Amino acid sequence: MAYELPPLPYDYNALEPYISAKTFEFHHDKHHAAYVNNYNNMIKDTQMADMAIEEVIKAVYGDSSKMGIFNNAAQAWNHTFFWNCLKPSGGGAPTGAVAEKIDADLGGYDKFKEAFKTAATTQFGSGWAWLVLDGGTLKVTKTLNAENPLHMGQTPLLTCDVWEHAYYLDYQNRRPDFVEAFINNLINWDFVNQQMA
Question: Which one of 9, 61, 109, 154 is separated from 160 by 20 to 30 angstroms, measured CA to CA?
């Protein structure tokens, strides 16, 4: 089934000053749109055309002959997930079930924040930082390029895009500042709680 580019769940300028409208115009309308278009073109007239994108990601991972399909499928999915992890006036300490789980599994919000910032800032080159459920336990992880927790059997709850195109127009080479802004001002904890449920 063709995967559609979803609209952003907020206006282009809704996350300013932390992420500019200009960044969203490039990131959503150009980068994300290209992944979606490439993916749809690659699976057209194949058996994958009838599969959900999550199933395609799991099915083709590790198959070098299908690396292009994996990269575009995973990046299309990752970006859709990322947009939902953001909201105006977000960030800060979570509430609800995820807050209790962070306390129980990660030693509290401050330790989560430290672990997530480390994962995001130490990912060499392009990739993603994640909060996942792995066998019922919360973990902070990072992945390279297009990889994501789906093909590792984990449940993604939260992600931060640390490809340069996610932050370079606003932060240049200051990835740690972008990650700090993401954690303190942008995380959509309501969405995270929905994923956990």
Answer: 61
| pTM higher than 0.90 | yes
Kindly list the structural domains of the chain, giving each domain's residue range(s) and its CATH number in brackets, ordered by start.
21-84 (1.10.287.990), 97-196 (3.55.40.20)
- Cα dihedral sign, 91-154-1-43: positive
List Cβ neighbours of 39 (8 Å cut-off, separation of 6 or more).
3, 53, 69, 72, 73, 76
Alpha helices by DSSP H, listed for 33-106, are 33-43, 53-60, 67-84, 97-106
Query: Radius of gyration (Cα) for the chain, nearest Å?
Result: 16
User: Left, alpha or beta for 127 (phi > 0: left; psi -120 to 50: alpha)?
Assistant: left
Please give the DSSP secondary-structure letter assigned to residue 159: E
Note the pLDDT tens digit of each residue in 179-194: 999 999 999 999 999 9
